Amino acid sequence: MKHHTALPPITGHTRSRHNRGGGAGCGGHYPNELSGGQQQRVAIARALAMRPKVMLFDEPTSALDPELVGEVLAVMRDLAAGGMTMTVVTHEMGFAREVADHVCFMDDGVIVEEGHPDAVLSNPQTARARDFLRRG
């Protein structure tokens, strides 16, 4: 016997969060009908529907085509501007410098340098951070 749970209708709050996350216009589509950037934006919108206090992003742009990266970063910029606390693992150093108020540089799972983005990204104190940032 199968049991089905009725889902509550989409509320104005949920819809506004969906739109805030960049998911507007994606609602009647299956994931395989969406671009990678649209899929990522819908995932962000779904997470926002839970009213999180903090959002965690683990390389949110790593699997995207280069032309789609900007779409996802724009959504994340909007979230930051709206006061959302985010922990972001990224190799997008320009984005980190622009949006973050604190960065940690990690090597092999260990924080080797941390502080204000301008200090860490412009004047790294460790050789490992300098080498990495020079390549980027």
UniProtKB/TrEMBL annotation:
Belongs to the ABC transporter superfamily. It comes from the Bacteria. Keywords: ATP-binding, Cell membrane, Membrane, Nucleotide-binding, Transport. Residues 30-62 form the ABC transporter domain. Its main location: membrane. This is Polar amino acid transport system ATP-binding protein/general L-amino acid transport system ATP-binding protein. One of its GO terms (molecular function) is ATP binding. InterPro entries: ABC_transporter-like_ATP-bd, ABC_transporter-like_CS, MetN_ABC_transporter-like, P-loop_NTPase. It is a peripheral membrane protein. Residues 1-31 are annotated as: Disordered. GO terms for cellular component: plasma membrane. Transmembrane segments: none annotated. The keyword Membrane applies.
